[in-house]
Known about the structure:
By secondary structure, the chain is an alpha+beta fold. The chain has a single domain (3-221), classed as Glutaredoxin, CATH 3.40.30. Helix content is 39%, strand content 19%. The strands form three sheets. The protein has a six-stranded mixed β-sheet with strand order 1-10-9-4-5-6, sandwiched between helices. Strands 2-3 form a two-stranded antiparallel ribbon. Strands 7-8 form a two-stranded antiparallel ribbon. Strand 9 (185-189) and strand 10 (194-200) form a beta hairpin. The longest helix has 36 residues, at 3-38. The protein is globular. The termini are far apart.
Amino acid sequence: MTLMDSRSNAYRKLFRSGLVLVLLFVGYGLFLINRSGSGGSEAPSAAPLPVLRTISSMDLVDQAGEPVNLQTFRGQPWFANIIFTRCPGPCARMTQKMRQLQEALPAEASEVQLVSLTTDPDFDTPEVLSQYARKFQADTRSWKFLTGTKEEIVRVSTQEWLLVMLEKGEAERESPNDIFLHSTLTVLMDGLGRIRGTYEILEEGQLEEALADLQRLLQEAS
């Protein structure tokens, strides 16, 4: 490797590190804004949740191969995160938390949807996602596992949902399946496709806060 190649690789690593820091800063900023705006689970139920962003579009497919877009969730609140099925890191725990969230949804919230978007479309076909859903005993009537083109997944994850998603270079991987760096945030959307809350769902108390914010969102819409 020449000196120029070494410098080029170093610049690329610095750029990637800087990009990750920017995305993490944006995501954490939204997390703090949400916590500040909501005041935690003890906030008055009448206080509206902040509007953090309005989603413009998405064009994906679910585990049954059916098309999914914003209109799919029109009028329905929904929680969303990003995972991949061969993830050696937190994805299984995130999916388990999402299952707990689904099980804890109140009876009056039957219209609430859950969404898990893969970052690994080459491996996570609809068939693989369907098997993954069964593994975690997900009720796919209200929990969709989504995939799509690489370009659309990156766009939806980073530009629409404002979540970190970055594919690692081979030299940066600690194992063959250590493919992506991605956010562990779960995002709450309203029926108009607006981000209304973000939650580090693996942290203690965050699942309960997500449920409390969902109740406020449902009251707001009623």
